[in-house]
Amino acid sequence: MQILILGAAGMVGRKLVERLVQERQLGGQEITRLILHDVVEPERPEASFPIDTLTSDFSMPGEAEPLVATRPDVIFHLAAIVSGEAEADLEKGYRINLDGTRLLFDAIRHVGDGYRPRLVFTSSIAVFGAPFPEAIGDEFFLTPLTSYGTQKAIGELLLADYSRRGFLDGIGIRLPTICVRPGKPNKAASGFFSSIIREPLNGQEAILPVPMDVRHSHASPRSAVNFLIHAATLDLSRVGPRRNLTMPSVSVTVAEQIDALRRIGGERCVARIRHEIDPNIVRFVEGWPRRFDARRAESLGFRAEGSFDEIISIYIEDELGGALPDQ
Amino acid sequence: MQILILGAAGMVGRKLVERLVQERQLGGQEITRLILHDVVEPERPEASFPIDTLTSDFSMPGEAEPLVATRPDVIFHLAAIVSGEAEADLEKGYRINLDGTRLLFDAIRHVGDGYRPRLVFTSSIAVFGAPFPEAIGDEFFLTPLTSYGTQKAIGELLLADYSRRGFLDGIGIRLPTICVRPGKPNKAASGFFSSIIREPLNGQEAILPVPMDVRHSHASPRSAVNFLIHAATLDLSRVGPRRNLTMPSVSVTVAEQIDALRRIGGERCVARIRHEIDPNIVRFVEGWPRRFDARRAESLGFRAEGSFDEIISIYIEDELGGALPDQ
């Protein structure tokens, strides 16, 4: 089995590669080759099978074709300009997130000759726009309030149409906020959801810019990889033409996040959170979904964590070697 | 006020032009110039103001710019490859319905300098895909089952995003099946909904290819023009960021259509309908929505007919000079 990953240099991409290298198989089929693509050179880990790396801007005409020339059986399309950048640079966002996706799908279509790979597309809960019901169900409409969300919603529509027409066997998975993100704080407005856990666990101070009653939905990076692998191996005849699914997540308030941190890291961790309201971030967060009723994905076997405690524990296992650092 | 109409040579486009020529104003503002565009030369009626006609393929790079060079205040974007053709010719459908729409929106964006026209986009109930609830509400999700429906749904998303970003002041209106269509039978699978009324009223035989209990939603061509004009003049600050609306319609079974025909044209009209089931058309129709709960459009003042009798009466008024032909 040959696997192509677009966006392989990103956080989720790297974790997916790591898992595939470890497991050496996908859905019971031995991996014979892994092709890693990104706009910057992806890392190439040691593996029991050959790994190729490719670097290009896949939104440029002619650049998508080489990616599918060897007819990969499974394609993970994780490549995207993120929310903030797509909002700041309209043309770049549409070029990468819309044109790039379409050129990829068309490159697959042009292979022809019965080629019909499984294509796993990472969409986002940014396809939804306020006002929301208390829990967003599987049939709630997509009215994004960002260009990024618009581009992801268009990707979902293209995926469904190209699947229906038999050019690819696509599934779109709407990832919730991934938490606890490893590494340094990033500039995403949602970054604090990870920061207020990650920094205190590492002995550092973090800023909480929103009120304690803000509710949001999370899944761990490990769950994100689980979703991708499940999506790649699921029997899609059970899914039918509605190919885009909201993934399960853990819906908690910031206060509940902090309670979980207290249970796992103790009061000294909680004491490292400084509460400093940032009206800009508060305004952003008000436009975000609070809770999902992801029954369809759950009935298809997608699973997230059961609690925020579990999300923190996974961070400690996967990123801190299983124990809190001495502080 | 300067008005641009794309798709001016189509049935709804021609009726819109006729109305504007008659009324000489739109929303209380005098019309100073009308620009009619289509891929074939649109008719240019006599009018109290100058009418320009332009013929081009607006999906070709550089062709959308001249359309907006004179900064029209209102743009009606009715141009589209219809359902059957978009399904038969994937590339043409995506080129006209997606690329054309996007190039038009980008041409508007590139005018800059505060230019922000009202843009009325005709979408379609083809954005919905079975299975449906008994009545499709305003927050039901878009899962089209045709490439045409996919392209219209993408147009809606682009319209909302470009409106949100302030490049245009857009509104998308999802037209129900337009009935009674004037003229000859066309090849659309939905053509029989008009044929079974129009042909009998004109002394001709018509074929009914589906069972009598098939339910469908209709509005007259006059209502379609009313929708467009209302959309062009409505205060969109009342609409907010959710810019795409399902239009009101009359939901009736075929049996109810025929009862209305009997009341208006008598039994001799009904006798001209031959019932000949066509399994292909039956299969198509099973995938179509039956009824809409278009509360949002209604609350914004959009109005369709109150009954199918009224729809037939409008056909007789607008197309047959107000009386049934001698038969």
What is the radius of gyration of chain A? 20 Å
Structural class based on helices, strands and sheet pairing of chain A? alpha/beta
Could you name the CATH homologous superfamily of the largest domain in chain A? NAD(P)-binding Rossmann-like Domain
Architecture of the largest domain in chain A, according to CATH?
A: 3-Layer(aba) Sandwich
The level of helicity of chain A is: 25-40%
Query: Which regions of chain A have little confidence, pLDDT < 50, spanning 5+ residues?
Result: none
CATH topology of the largest domain in chain A: Rossmann fold
> What portion of residues of chain A belong to β-strands?
15-25%
State the end-to-end distance of chain A: 46 Å
Biggest interface, CB < 8 A? A-B, 21 and 21 residues
Number of domains of chain A: 2
- What can be said about the biggest beta sheet of chain A? 7 strands, parallel
Quaternary organisation: homodimer
Top-tier CATH class of the largest domain in chain A: Alpha Beta
SSE succession of chain A: EHEEEEHEHHEHEEHEEHEEHHEHHH
Based on DSSP secondary structure assignment, what is the total number of beta strands of chain A?
14
Q: Looking at the structure, what is the overall shape of chain A?
A: globular
**Average of the residue pLDDT scores of chain A:** 96
Number of helices of chain A: 12
GO molecular function (chains A, B): oxidoreductase activity
Protein name (chains A, B): Nucleoside-diphosphate-sugar epimerase
InterPro entries (chains A, B): DenD (IPR050005), Epimerase_deHydtase (IPR001509), NAD(P)-bd_dom_sf (IPR036291)
Pfam family, one (chains A, B): Epimerase
